[in-house]
Amino acid sequence: MEPKRPTETDFELLGHQLAALHHNATQDEFGFSTDNYIGNLEQSNSNHLDWAEFYVKERLAPQLQLAKVAGKLNNNEVPTESKLLQRCGQLFPNTKPSLLHGDLWSGNYLISNNGTPYLIDPAVYFGHHEVDLAMTRLFGGFGASFYNAYQEHFAPIGNEKERIDIYQLYYLLVHLNLFGNSYKASVTEILQRYF
Fold first, then answer.
1. Which Gene3D superfamilies does the UniProt entry name for this protein (predicted)?
2. What is the pLDDT at residue 24?
3. Is residue 1 part of a domain?
4. What is the DSSP letter of 140?
């Protein structure tokens, strides 16, 4: 497949198709049938009925523990699991689990010469659809036509900014654990603001 530089029309199609994936590929529990990886870090996908519980226990807590053990975060910088659960429970909506790419940044999609979008290198699981959008915004974004097209299918429900920050926290923790302390300030800023 020969990739090309995406146009606004290509981003629009990608937005519509990602929304279709999130709408149509669903199940009753958050998680996945197997564990997998994000980068070379293990990613647990044990099933949960509650989204905040899944996100704290399968995403935030393992990465925070990894950072603490490696000396990248101090004990006093890491919130308790109960504090994480309480805050996420306040901000996260009652949502249906959607199939997520799980690591959707600009290096993990391609647009073919005929304009067909492809998603590559996933860290797949079923979660809140906004997680994929939060990752797209972390390192520059996908262009206004992508977000406008996506939002034709998912109306805003409030507290998006707060959830984006908390969803990006997971990816920033992954980067802290993989690439080191240049990501620590971003991690601790979000932890201090919300927890």
1. 3.90.1200.10
2. 97
3. no
4. T
Q: Give the number of other CB atoms < 10 A from CB of residue 195.
A: 17
- 103 labelled catalytic: yes
* pLDDT computed for residue 71 by the predictor: 97
Domain with 83 in it? 8-194
Asked whether 142 and 106 are in contact (CB, 8 A), the reply is yes
**What is the rounded distance in angstroms from the CA atom of residue 148 to the CA atom of residue 60?**
29
Could you tell me if residue 142 is inside a domain? yes
Q: Note the residue count of the chain.
A: 195
Catalytic option among 103, 121, 132, 165 = 103
Burial of 192 (0-12, 13-18, 19+ CB in 10 A): exposed
Q: 11-45 pLDDT, tens per residue?
A: 999 999 999 999 999 999 999 999 999 999 999 99
**Does residue 160 form part of some domain?**
yes
Look up the CATH number of the domain holding residue 176: 3.90.1200.10
Q: In this structure, is residue 3 part of a structural domain?
A: no
